[in-house]
Amino acid sequence: MQESLKQIDHMVLQLFALVGESVSGATHALLSGDREAAKRLAEGDDVVDKLYRDIEQLTLRQLTIGGVTGPRDLRYLVAVIRMLPDLERNGDLAEHVARRAARGLGAELSPRSRGLVERMGEVAVRMWRATTDAYAERQAMAAAVIETLDDEMDDLHVSLTVEVVADTMPLPVAVELAMVARFYERFGDHAVNLARRVSLMEAGPPFNASEETA
Q1: Which residue has the higher pLDDT, 73 or 184?
Q2: Three-state secondary-structure class, residue 208
Q3: Strand runs (DSSP E) across the chain, as ranges?
């Protein structure tokens, strides 16, 4: 049982890392105009989806036939099942940004909107690193920090929406940019959800030395 928990924990951290790399790379590709990198990132979402399914199957197996040995293990497995949809959806959001980067949207942005997108990308990366650390170290108090960053993301979303309706860009570009703004805003919401899930997990890893040697 404990080896399975370790495996699940390792796979979840892999999923956090893949999603973090995707959102960072998608923002860079959008602003730099690197269409090839954007295409690779978009296609890489299949890796995120496969890992998501593998974790889900292994976790459900442990919940149903794995023989959960205590309340801590049960809380951990239930938390993972509840976290997986937010992880997968944030991978999808990064893919959505990458696909618009692959179509060359970045070159059409107004100077102000470029600055706002850059800042949203930076905040998204900070939120994701904090969320990843919160999961890895079981930091129950991290949710408050991530919610503060999410407030900044929401403010940036409002500012970018104002820029979108200011008629400084062609209508098709404005429509696509409004979608990108929404993707970043939703990314922040999912990060907050994940941090709140972590706050409900018991401090410390889902296994300990005595259990490993039992």
Answers
A1: 184
A2: coil
A3: none
